[in-house]
Amino acid sequence: MRGSGFVVAALFATLVTSPAAAQAAGTFEFGAFGQATYFDNTLQFPQAKGGAGIHLGFFPARNWEVEGEGSFTPTPGPGDSKVYYIPLRARLLFNIPAGSHSALLIGAGYVHNEYRHDADFHDDGATALAGVRFGLNGLPSIRLTSYLDYIPSPANGAGDNLNWGIQVGLSFLSGERTSAAPEPARAEEPDSRQKPARIRCVRRRCRTRSAPQKPRRRRQPRPRRGRRTALGWLRRRLPRRRRRCRTAWWPPRSRTASAPRR
């Protein structure tokens, strides 16, 4: 009941709070979680035992995260024994952006299991993880994941072991972060020296728009007078005088050859 109440509260907080954006290179992630572990049947441990753990991650590239994780789960063993289950995991995670406010987590890696207290053995295997991270703006992110551990050669002598579980916790993200929606750039205010000229132009524009515009009068072409008209008149008159002079005085006639005048 307590675990289900925690999950409901986490989902409610996610709905009422705007989450953060996807992470860029150089971001660190640190978180704590509670988990419910389901052991392989060959181990003869009770199922759905609760535990706690921490994880630490680093983003060497955008959306890629290298993560280490450790947890502690006390559980009763066969008979009256008590066993401490301590898994240590190292994995590579890929964060798939799901919209602008959340991301899907998919990863795989290596797991080392330690069994302590009344038991003393360990085994190694492979691990896989899938889940989702709900980012919160200015608050820790909520992380819900499920893991699966495959042990090909377990210490109990069985063929193989499969342990899986569910984890719910909070993550703290720090470092470089790319915002989901970049803020619009503010327009630079004009210089105080340019403000009067701008106001003057606006006033002049308003004045020209509001005042009725008079129709423009076309200028009538002026008649050509003066020198050009006089020269043209002389050119028209001059050939006539020359023609008269040629007929009257050119070429000159000798008085001897000319007929006597009557």
Describe this structure in words.
With 262 residues, the protein is α+β, with helices and mostly antiparallel strands. The chain has a domain at 2-174: Beta Barrel (Porin). The chain has three helices and eight strands, in the order αββββββββαα. The chain has helices at residues 2-16, 194-210, 227-249; strands at residues 28-38, 49-61, 64-76, 82-98, 102-117, 121-136, 139-151, 161-174. Strands 1-2-3-4-5-6-7-8 form an eight-stranded antiparallel β-barrel. The longest helix has 23 residues, at 227-249. The N and C termini lie far apart (161 Å). The relative contact order is 0.15. Residues 6-22 and 177-181 have low confidence and may be disordered.
